[in-house]
Amino acid sequence: MRGQQPIRDVGEMAHYSQRKVLRVARVVAMMTSSLLPIGAIFALNYVHPLWRRLALVAGFSAAFSLALGLLTRADIAPVFAASAA
Q: What is the DSSP letter of 70?
């Protein structure tokens, strides 16, 4: 975390507050979940050949599934269901 001092310095390893790290992780997850659909809408609006639009849909679907899998603790079935919707 840039600009913050570790709570306790133990040689090469630093210890940070778990609460602060979780807060940063939640903010990153919320920003990612907000920006993916907005990015998809803008990208699909400006890309005109149909095959490129279909490729973008596939790419954004894969990115959505990857973000769900990495940023949440959801099992594979809810990730698959959300991606299919």
A: H
Report the run of H or E that residue 37 belongs to, with start and end: helix 18-46
Residue 58: per-residue pLDDT: 93
CB atoms within 10 A of CB 68: 19
Is-above-0.70 flag for pTM? no
Alpha-carbon distance 75 to 55, whole Å?
26
From residue 24, how far is each of 10, 19, 51, 62 by CA, in Å? 23, 9, 38, 24
β-pairing, 13-15 vs 8-10, is: antiparallel
